[in-house]
């Protein structure tokens, strides 16, 4: 008698479904991690045996006992909803009994133009061009790292940001002062790519949809990363050896160290360059709708936070102490 094929384990089913939906590797790792935590929290009970009540209990636990951030709780909620809907084919009713984690109202850290100049002067050569480009365009960290050669339009001084937050493309300006440095940089990147091709390598990662449409595009020059890694790595999904883009954590450490070396007393991250970009544009007199479009914000209310940063010293009020001087 022929044995029945073994049904894949739950986490393998979850992984397969995530890949079928063409979600990113980052999302895959995060969703799998939350599924594991959820199962362990309920003493390894199978999610099929649980539902709305157990999900609400877990999410409330995260907020009340683990004191996670609101964004972290929402991430866990999205992961579990995906698990139930896409893998177990169970639609959870609206999770109305969840204790919501508090979302703090924080103003973004913004540098003055002088502080930005000082910071960039202390960024090492390998990350200097990328850091200047991020400040000059307002890109998010991963948007900058994922730039492809064809995304730079030197003739129009434009830059295409593909699949930014919300999976939307947008166009922003390319700082004219960076055109020549970028062109020189790409000459070096092209040499590196040609060396990889000679070794039988040179294939860059492509999304599944693009790879199906253009099956041989992975080795084309126009699809290469503008800021490639200095070393090759093996793709954990496919086992293919490729040259990925620069490591995001390395850039984060570099910016943090540059701020320390520059003597800045603010908590500076790569995202601080984006905040400073938006604030400096508003200070220069550009209207908020233009800044919203350049940043890729869906709602202008998100962009409005930078107007609060402009109000120096408590809504722009002069301290009475200064009137005595």
UniProtKB/TrEMBL annotation:
Keywords of this entry: DNA integration, DNA recombination, DNA-binding
Keyword presence, Protein transport: no
GO molecular function: DNA binding
The Tyr recombinase domain, residue ranges: 106-319
Cited InterPro entries: CB, DNA_brk_join_enz, Integrase-like_cat_sf, Integrase_catalytic, Integrase_integron-type, Integrase_recombinase_N, Integrase_SAM-like_N, Tyrosine_recombinase_XerCD
Biological processes, Gene Ontology terms: DNA integration; DNA recombination
Record field: transmembrane: none
Superkingdom, natural source: Bacteria
Signal peptide: none
Family annotation (Pfam families): Phage_int_SAM_4, Phage_integrase
Domain Core-binding (CB): start-end pairs: 5-88
Keyword DNA-binding set for record: yes
NCBIfam families cross-referenced by the UniProt entry: integrase_gron
Protein family membership: Belongs to the 'phage' integrase family.
Name of the protein in question: Integron integrase
Organism in which the protein naturally occurs: Trichlorobacter thiogenes
